[in-house]
Amino acid sequence: MAQIKIRYPESRFVFQRNNNNRADVPVVLQFDKPVQKIEIQAIARSMNSPQGTSTDWIPVQKPSQSNTCYTKITLAGGWYDLIVRAFDGLNFVGIDTLKRVGVGEVFIVAGQSNATGDNELRNQNIFGPSATDDRVETINYFNGETTTYGATKYPYPIISQIDSTFRLAPFGNSAWCWGVLGDSLAKKLNVPILFFNAGWSGSGISSWVSSAEDSSATPSEFITYPRGLPYGNLRSSLRFYTAQFGLRAILWHQGETDNLYQTDRDTYGKKLKRLIEKSREHSNAPNLAWVVARATRFRGLSIQYSRVWQPVIDAQNDVLGINGQGQANYLSNTFIGPATDSLIGPSIRTIDSVHFQGKGIVKLAQAWNTYLDSHFFEASTPILSTSLPEINSACASITSLKFTLTNPTLYSVSEWSNDPFAKQVFSNSTSINLSQNQFARVRVKDAQDRELFSPLLYTPNNFAGLYPLESTQSGYWHDTGIWSCGRIPTALDEVTILKNHEVVVGTGLSAQFKKLNLLGNLYLFGDTHLFTNKVIPKSVKE
Fold it and tell me: Where is the Sialate O-acetylesterase domain (predicted)?
């Protein structure tokens, strides 16, 4: 184990920037030797087009009674390596480097199959291209087709560059058009891009709204959805992924199913407006941006030719204000997305004339890129990441530490896990004890229903100098039972003898410490001298 370690963030984490192109990136450090000074630096990664803004060494305030340090570093949009180093006086203690940490743009995709990539297309090896830019990221995780909203429990995020075959968490079927779009956005904006995908193939607006309004609903269209779905994946993403990383906007591509059902203009418009309003309520973000594609093209058994459905397009335009902001279903902070129905042809869509394929997937990405323009990024209001739960550590015994949530009243749920993905819970307490070389992290839920993780914290195999020692009673210096950590002080330790405690150094023995705070008394055997030297070797005759 390194002497100092960056425990958070993880490699490839991307944090949403604000509209001034800045983000406060949370950083959590642990060290297993005494340190007096810690510094952090961010280095913009070398790329074909210069990006990011490197920093000088920045001092980090070290806690006085913990081996865990929480800080933030403010960075401009870019792709960075983080470096931390520590000193004890003039002595260099250690250094650690974390590669690929981003400040950029975060999106959640929602809608139906042309938002997610269809599962049947996946079975036909139609995936959509991989991202080619190193800065285009996702989590390769699939939430499961039978998981209900109440049972959703996303694992600790592991982020990767988008690969063609990846499931884009929590419910995407492949890279679809998002890897290509990510490449275009990363090049245009010169920042990293992070995608999540909460869509569901075949889903209609009614299922989205009914499950948004009632998390126990089981809507039925082509299928009967699990409880709280399909909206539940979007709601969970807003609670979980947005809390961790922030969010720029939801990208909505849906309408094909409502072509089949011939949904009328006012019904679709009211329901889309209601859906957006519920997402803002659940994310506690009244200005949460939505980018809405105008999409309806469908062909089914009862439809001889591929067709569009103008009432749904009109309804989408009503919500966006294209038909005038006086429309009853108009909603502010919504942004115009691509009109995709005109993208047709055998090289663009599959034989069903509905789903994109090949160059059509690339054209779909290009269409999205056109509408995610400078106006959108200037006018939309992003959600920034939520502060991490902070944890203090203290000696519990000579071989264990006690880890405690600093502000437990902020959280309604605390779940401790020693599983790296935090799926298995071993304690719901606000504090736990860990023996040497053991690891754990905590998942919490706050008053806004947001779920957050702590980093994976550990107990080093030697605590000397990490935690101040205090006398617990009067007695002999070399008696482990009189010290707060249950061990004899070393030359690395800060030691306090509390008021009304008398501690005696036995005949022929030495008392060692780095700093001694005398509120009580320290005696050599048979002597009344109060000692303040760093090391006290003495042999006193009785």
Answer: 105-305
CATH 3.30.450 describes domain 389-466? no
Is the pLDDT higher at 468 or at 540?
Answer: 468
Tell me the domain boundaries of the chain: 102-379, 389-466, 469-537
CATH superfamily of the domain spanning 102-379? SGNH hydrolase (3.40.50.1110)
Q: At what angle do helices 359-371 and 178-189 cross, to 10 degrees?
A: 40
426, 411 contact by CB (below 8 A) = no
CB contact burial 12-34 (16+ within 10 A = b; e otherwise): bbbbbbeeebebbbbbbbbbbbb
Instruction: Give rounded-to-5 percent helix, strand, coil for the chain.
Output: 20, 35, 50
Rounded CA gap, 167 and 128, in Å?
Answer: 11
**From CA 440, how far away is CA 433, in angstroms rounded?**
10
Q: Is the peptide bond before 155 cis (omega within 30 degrees of 0)?
A: no
- Burial zone of 39 (CB within 10 Å; 0-12 exposed, 13-18 middle, 19+ buried): middle
Residue 541 pLDDT exceeds 70 = no
Mean pLDDT of 24-30: 97
DSSP-assigned states of every residue in 170-185: BT--S-TTHHHHHHHH
Residues 6+ apart with CB under 8 A from 287: 280, 333, 381
Taking Cα atoms as reference points, which of 493, 492, 502, 494 lies closest to residue 472? 502
HEC secondary structure over 121-171: HHHCCCCCCCCCCCCEEEEECCCCCCCCHHHCCCCCCCEEECCCCCCECEC
Interatomic CA distance for residues 444 and 451, integer angstroms: 6
Q: What is the pLDDT of residues 70-102, one digit of tens each?
A: 999 999 999 999 999 999 888 899 999 999 999
How far, CA to CA in Å, does 65 sit from each of 7, 95, 532? Answer: 18, 21, 22
